[in-house]
Amino acid sequence: MVNLDLTAAQLRKRGSLKWTQHPADVLGAWVAEMDYGLASPVAEALHDAIDRGDTGYFYPALVRSAGEAASSFWADNFTWSVDPDRVMPVPDVVEGIRRVIEQLTEPETAVILHTPVYYPFFSMVERAHRNLVEVPSAVDEEGRHRLDLERIDAAFAGGAGCLVLCNPWNPTGRSFTAPELADVIDIASSHGGRVISDEIHAPLTYPGSVHIPAASMDPETVITVTSASKAWNLPGLKCGQVVLTNEADCKTWIDYFSPEKVGVSTFGLIANAAAYAQGHPWLEEVMAILESNRQLLGELIQTRLPEMVFRPPEATYLAWLDFTPFAMTEPASFLLNRARVALTDGAPFGVGGKGHARLNFATTPSILEEIVHRIATALR
């Protein structure tokens, strides 16, 4: 059972980057960590590994176990059938995407990012030694962020080799529909390009939206990189999955995944396998809490900050807040100093991020209420 009675002081004592980065009077709502502890099957699997002394390098049986558990979870929840032998381990999603870019696209081709987007992607492209094409998104009349398909098409026509698709979309909270996915995949395919789909937030999709694995629509054009780390709060255990659904990719790259190159954590594989195989009841409980918090945040903003531009996310536990009605360009810095609340500033997310901030609402209702109270007070 998730403990929703924890105080900020107790969360700080437990640790995590979210609660220890800033002074003790600051409420953490920035980095994407949840405050809900660990699913018991994951904890039990890790304790069992400690008891056995299984703390050496990872080994094939662990890779197989994680691949089978992940494939089964995706089949049950996304109707996506994947060969477990093609679920390959990487240390995390960002590193996995970097390796995909280097291994499966031509060295002279650029990488397209649809902005605003998860800011570590920018340094990831640089570390892959590629040029970046930034394509700002459009916002429709309902306040939903949309891919700019014309500019993505132009970027591929100009020689870009791939698009990194963030689905669900951090920080906007969008979950792409089948027609949206089909459009962007068709563009990439028509230019001989690739779509690298980051689906780390896929299990965190709310009622009313459905996560569709992009590779289930076109396994030849799309390569998927994901992990159990966001849905089960495991980022520190360093384990993600690259899913090879293209036969040519398997032939050219599968030999790469040898122990001296992979660098994945033994505990990460153990935890990912346990989460995918046995963590669904815990995830259902957490999703009910997040859904309640999502509604609570909307009500609090409507009551305390009616000027705020906010659209509830379709997925993720991240809220993308528009502070431009308050004439603010760096809201996170202002709120850290004046409200003692830590958000993630929007500018590093690329074009479209300035004047925005990302708020993590995966906390207790009482802490969430205090966060909004502090923000509203500071803005008055």
Structure report:
- With 380 residues, this protein is α/β, with parallel strands linked by helices.
- The chain has two domains: 8-31 and 280-379, Aspartate Aminotransferase, domain 1 (Alpha-Beta Complex); 42-278, Aspartate Aminotransferase, domain 2 (3-Layer(aba) Sandwich).
- It contains 15 helices and 15 strands.
- It has helices at 8-14, 17-20, 40-52, 60-78, 93-104, 120-127, 149-157, 178-190, 214-217, 247-253, 259-262, 266-278, 280-304, 331-338, 365-379, and strands spanning 27-28, 87-90, 111-115, 132-136, 138-139, 145-146, 162-166, 194-198, 222-226, 240-243, 309-310, 318-322, 341-342, 344-345, 356-360.
- Strands 2-10-9-8-7-3-4 form a seven-stranded mixed sheet, with helices on both faces. It has a four-stranded antiparallel sheet with strand order 11-12-15-14, covered by helices on one side.
- Helix 3 packs antiparallel against helix 12 (266-278) and helix 13 (280-304) packs parallel to helix 15 (365-379).
- The longest helix has 25 residues, at 280-304.
- 50% of the residues are buried.
